[in-house]
Design brief:
Helices cover 9% and strands 36% of the residues. A 5-stranded antiparallel beta sheet has the order 7-5-4-8-9, with no helix packed on it. Strand 4 (81-92) and strand 5 (95-108) form a beta hairpin. The protein has one helix at 29-42, and strands at residues 46-49, 56-58, 73-76, 81-92, 95-108, 112-113, 115-119, 130-135, 148-153. It has a single domain, classed as Nucleic acid-binding proteins (OB fold (Dihydrolipoamide Acetyltransferase, E2P)), CATH 2.40.50. The protein has 1 helix and 9 strands, in the order H-E-E-E-E-E-E-E-E-E. The protein has 154 residues and is mainly beta. It starts with 28 loop residues before the first helix and ends with a strand.
């Protein structure tokens, strides 16, 4: 039966009843790898800056989402971030969690974007609260966002 032929009876449809094994490797891309390398080696967040619109983005990106030009200029973020939004979750995938977890979108002054991660202090979180990252030790870091243990109040 040709692909474009109209099926008049559902039993004529062909389908696959087995599984199709897929193998893939996720990469963070060029800018993402630079961001992860800076986090692993120096414990800092890398941001990229657009030469045309002057916007700064965190995490670092290769192309400006506004201008669509390649961003080659990078800088590390100095100073604390701030809680832009947060939520407290008391369940995990298997049911009730042992203790509630607070997740937040942490933004940084002068940069668009941010990092979604766990907060240390769930009882006194406020919007705009200044926070700093708590990182694993230099020998334990792998260059992943899990190198950030959490963010704590500054």
């Amino acid at each position: 039966m040709p692909i474009l032929e109209k099926i008049s009876q559902p039993l004529q449809a062909r389908h696959w009843t087995d599984s199709i094994p897929l193998e893939y490797h996720y990469t963070a891309g060029v800018a993402g790898e630079e961001f992860r390398r800076e986090l692993k080696e120096n414990g800092r967040f890398l941001a990229s800056k657009c030469a045309k619109c002057k916007n700064t983005y965190v995490p670092a990106r290769m192309f400006c989402p506004s201008c669509f030009i390649e961003m080659k200029e990078t800088r590390t973020l100095e100073g604390p971030g701030y809680v832009y939004s947060f939520t407290t979750v008391n369940r995990n995938r298997t049911g009730d969690a042992a203790e509630p977890v607070t997740l937040a979108l942490v933004k940084f002054d002068g940069a668009k974007g941010g990092i979604v991660h766990r907060l240390d202090s769930s009882d006194s979180v406020t919007f705009g609260m200044k926070v700093v990252p708590v990182l694993k030790g230099p020998s334990e870091r792998t260059g992943a966002l899990t190198d950030i243990i959490s963010f704590k109040p500054a």
